[in-house]
Amino acid sequence: MKLFRVMTVGIAAAVTALAIGGVAKAEEKLKVGFVYCCPVGDLGWSYEHDKGRKAIEEAFGDRVETSFVESVSDGPDAERVIRQLAQNGNDMVFTTSFGFMNPTVKVAKSFGKVKFEHATGFKRGANVATYSSRFYEGRHILGLIAGRMTTSNTVGYVASFPIPEVVRGINAAFLAARSVNPKVQFKVIWVNTWFDPGKEADAARALIDQGADILMQHTDSPAAMKIAEDAGIHAFGQASDMSRFGPNAQMTAIIDNWAPYYVARVKAALDGEWKSEDTWGGFSTGMVALAPYNANLPAKVVAEAEAARKAIAAGTLHPFTGPLNRQDGSVWLKAGETASDGDLLGMNFYVEGIEGSVPQ
Amino acid sequence: MIRLERRPETSRIMLWLTPVLALVLTILVGMVLFAMLGKDPLQTVAVIFVSPFSDLYNLSELLVKATPLILIAIGLSLGFRAGIWNIGAEGQFTIGALAGGAVGLAFHGTDGLWLMPLMWITGCAAGMAWAAIPAFLRTRFGANEILVSLMLVYVATLLLSALVTGPLRDPDGFNFPESRLFEGSAAMPLLMEGTRAHIGFFAALVAAFVAWLLLGRHVVGFQIRLLGEAPRAARFAGFVEARVIWFCLLVSGGLAGLAGLFEATGPVGQLVPSLPVGYGFTAIIVAFLGRLNPLGIIIAGFVMAVTYLGGEAAEITMQLPNAVTAVFQGLLLFFLLGMDVLSTYRFRLRRRVREVA
User: Fold this and answer.
1) In terms of pLDDT, which residue wins out, A89 or A360?
2) For A219-228, how does the pLDDT look when each residue is reduced to its tens digit (9 = 90+)?
């Protein structure tokens, strides 16, 4: 019993010493930690977050110190990694995958002074902010281009998981494509993974066999792009510029650009003005960007796409504007009405005209 | 010339010495690797092996990581001794979590001490049922249990994703594929407030103790060992192979199911598609690392846990790439298993001259 007490006191002393050390250090530099779901070299999701981390270092130099942990699965390990980052004296921790939501909220409760930022989630706290991007704005542009460029009137879509984010992207792209080409059809294949080049390639081949002459993807590897290039058809890059895998195939790509958000949030923390809030940025904030249009696109199509991008950024165009029906024919949005963020965040239905069903 | 010669008897000293030797070799090779990457080799090794023991929280996390590994490996070791290869513990783990978790979710909001035991029983029974499929197909049709149990892992994983995107989905979760959190009576009781170490660790210890009793003191244990070491003799002795197959698969499935339920209601706290992270497969390594011996498995479970936690700590504090910590873990396993050769074989020096003569 006595030994136990001595040990407890000793540990408490050690922890206090560490904590004081951490605070002293924090006054010199703001320590910022990142948790990634995937390897940083994957050219997709985590790679773009890491570019955001590097942007922080570039912007603030000696005033910040960043570190990251990659390939953290969103199962039981996430909580420990997040806690250790907080314990190691990080003043700010960015957890960059949806699966880190509950662990982030849990750890945040025991580290009141650490500022947590969770990507793509919906649970906030006094020291937990959330952020995501309106990728559907980018999908609208891809849809416009796809609708104009397809000759078989069939667009193939490699989808990951049937979560609102992905369903929303399919709907946004489909509506835009239909708006310029009433005959266009979407074929969707669910691969149930974010990153699996083999599966993604199989899905891409199957879609081409079903007549698709344009491929879209909501998975991270460049596999589909490579196959589109080999088959001589068109495709869109995902998360980052994939043109080196498809110099002729890639028409453009949605680029996840986290840098402006990360720099702004770190600046707020440095200035003592950080608050927990929810950010959902799109074209207007620069968080969603497009890769350069391929030179082989007709100038008319590029002009139309650019006009739409500018209108969305200016707030004069919303990709989900009524009249819109759900797939089952029921009314979702009346004429002139635009979708609320709540509706968009929980979207689990296809809009009218899409074939097939959302896996439930 | 150096030759390997089989020892007449397994060396007791070597049995205990080889793990130490393996550890030293791993550290040396690891240090070269770290130095090549431009990291301070001594500091990196220190972080890997010291940080998991540095405070109460890290110690508790060792328990969190080791508990499912030990629990599953104990069950698997029985079958492995008898030559029955249940490779699908990952699937039984998943089904156990799914079934037991579903019971917890069905009684969401109700309190009662009866709920947790009910979930344990369901999880365990579901794991058994999943393992009963390969047992039935093997005993009835002679189907290979390695393939059947392995394939059922994929079925279980997909079933989990299907159910958390459907009926078990959190109604307030914006349609994301995850269940409600397990709360109150449906949450695993913790060993210590503020940590994630849960009472499942005792279940692992009990399982190890029972397995030790069974193997050393009970006729079932004798049958298992005999079937593995001398199957013909076992048949002559009148042991029914089918009974041993059923027994081993049901026990390993039940323990894996229990481990899955513990994991879902404890450290993870909800059903998510990414719940199975490979404990069922890692436990196979743990079982062999522990030499299929219950005490050895407990130690091996902790060794694996240390390499995981230490690797994570090195990634955080030393900014070591994830791939390098994985290589380091691989090195440790490679040397641990490779050094085994020393306990059953010995090196002999032979002069070439004598061979010529």
Assistant:
1) A89
2) 988 999 999 9
B90 to chain A, any CB pair closer than 8 A? The answer is: no
Fold category of B45-320 in CATH = ABC transporter involved in vitamin B12 uptake, BtuC (1.10.3470)
| CB-CB under 8 Å, A69 with B312 | yes
pTM of the model: 0.82
Residue with tokens 């703001």: A30
Domains in chain A, CATH or no CATH each: 23-133 (3.40.50.2300), 136-256+288-345 (3.40.50.2300)
- When CB atoms are compared, the residue of B65, B309, B316 closest to A67 is B316
Asked whether residue B101 carries a pLDDT value surpassing 50, the answer given is yes
The reply to whether A70 touches chain B by the CB within 8 Å rule is yes
Is the omega angle on the peptide bond into residue A323 within 30 degrees of 0, that is, cis?
yes
> What token pair was written down for B256?
């894996």
CA distance A263 to B14: 57
For tokens 């130490």, the residue is: B20
In this structure, what is the dihedral angle of CA atoms A274, A279, A284, A285, given to the nearest 10 degrees? Answer: 40
* Whole-complex ipTM: 0.80
- Take residue B121 and report the two structure tokens written for it: 């029983």
- For the stretch B167-217, pLDDT in tens is 998 888 777 788 999 988 999 999 988 889 999 999 999 999 999 999 888
* Domain boundaries of chain B, sorted by first residue: 45-320
Strand partners, A118: A95, A130
Predicted local confidence at residue A5, as pLDDT: 47
Partner-chain residue, chosen from A67, A85, A163, that has the shortest CB–CB distance to B177: A163
